[in-house]
Amino acid sequence: MGARRLLLAAVSLVAVVMCAGCSAASVPQPPAAVGENYPGTCLPAELSWPSDFIESLPGESPAVAGRIVGLRLEYVDSGWVWRLRSEASRTDAFGEQVDDASFGRESIVDVRTLQVIASHDTELTEAEQQVGTDAYDVVQQSGEQWPSPLVIELARVVEDGQSVWRVTTCDTETSEHVVQTMP
């Protein structure tokens, strides 16, 4: 009887460890292009602007596990969401932290409340693994301000052999997108 309980406890522990970070809702694939599926505007009726939340989010929300390496405004299932990508720490079966720069978290959050809708572990791209200018500083340098322009994407990409930020802003009156790169 004791061996049976020990086996059951071990199986339960393995299941819990394997499902750590699991989310009841699945994270949908991102649209192929920034702004795809927008319902005629890039400005939801209510939202939190990146310049207002991007600096504090890593310490305050389970949506991100570390340094933010990506952000995108999306319109999914008739609702607005932010897709956030961040570095994360991986642990082994014994709970020990494992160095793995490719390990990250991707989360879908409500644009107004920033509450997590869905989250999962993901593999970061080579560009996302490279440390560059902090996402908060990039948003500040982008010129984002009320009422326009609004940052609708921050993405780490490789350009001319260098990892840079691709920043897409949207003019909230015309819905015109402007793309710029920053180190």
Architecture overview:
This protein is of the alpha+beta class and 183 residues long. It has one domain (2-182). The chain has 5 helices and 9 strands; from the N terminus they run αααββββββααβββ. β3 (90-91) and β4 form a beta hairpin.
Features:
alpha+beta, 34% strand, seven-stranded antiparallel β-sheet, disordered N terminus, 183 residues
In short:
By secondary structure, the protein is of the alpha+beta class.
List the helices and strands and how they pair.
Elements: H1 2-18, H2 50-53, H3 57-60, E1 68-76, E2 79-87, E3 90-91, E4 97-98, E5 103-110, E6 116-123, H4 126-129, H5 135-142, E7 150-159, E8 162-170, E9 177-182
Antiparallel strand pairs: 1-2, 1-7, 2-5, 3-4, 5-6, 7-8, 8-9
SSE series: HHHEEEEEEHHEEE
Order of strands in the sheet with most strands:
6-5-2-1-7-8-9
Q: If helices are DSSP runs of H or I spanning 4 or more residues, what is the number of helices?
A: 5
Quote the distance from N terminus to C terminus: 62 Å
Approximate shape? globular
Approximately how much beta-strand content do the residues carry? 25-35%
